[in-house]
Amino acid sequence: MPIKLLLADDETLFRQSLRVLLETGTTSKVVAEASNGQEAVIVAREAKPDLALLDVDMPKMDGTKAAKLISINIIRESHPQLGALTLLIIYAIKLQLF
Across the beta sheet with 51-54, what order do the strands follow? Predict the structure, then answer.
């Protein structure tokens, strides 16, 4: 059974590219996408992902706050055996060189 993923990033092209990479194998399936943290929390309620991959720097709600709400409201309900969500933050700084 594939791992159900939620992808949230305000950069559409990055999010779509990540989806293609993650769905290339048979071990994962993207069940929901969001363009900001607030939307991620909403779609997570419906999609009930096993794992949420969230951008830290998004409009309306950042990824860390969205992760907390998704963990409390959705993942604990779907997977009570986990007890808590493991959060891995990978942060990259965008350089704008002219």
Answer: 28-34, 3-8, 51-54
Express each pLDDT in 28-71 by its tens digit: 899 999 999 999 999 998 988 888 888 888 889 888 888 888 88
Q: What domains appear along the chain, each with residue ranges and CATH number? A: 3-78 (3.40.50.2300)
Could you give the CA distance from residue 98 to residue 80 in angstroms, rounded to a whole number? 49
Please give the helix or strand (H or E) that residue 45 lies within, else none.
Answer: helix 37-47
The 3-state secondary structure of 53-92 reads EECCCCCCCCHHHHHHHHHHHHHHHHCCCCCCCCCCCCCC
The total number of residues written for the chain in this structure: 98
Q: Quote the CA–CA distance of 93 and 51 in Å, as a whole number.
A: 24
pTM (2 decimals)?
0.75
Tokens found for residue 33: 């996408």
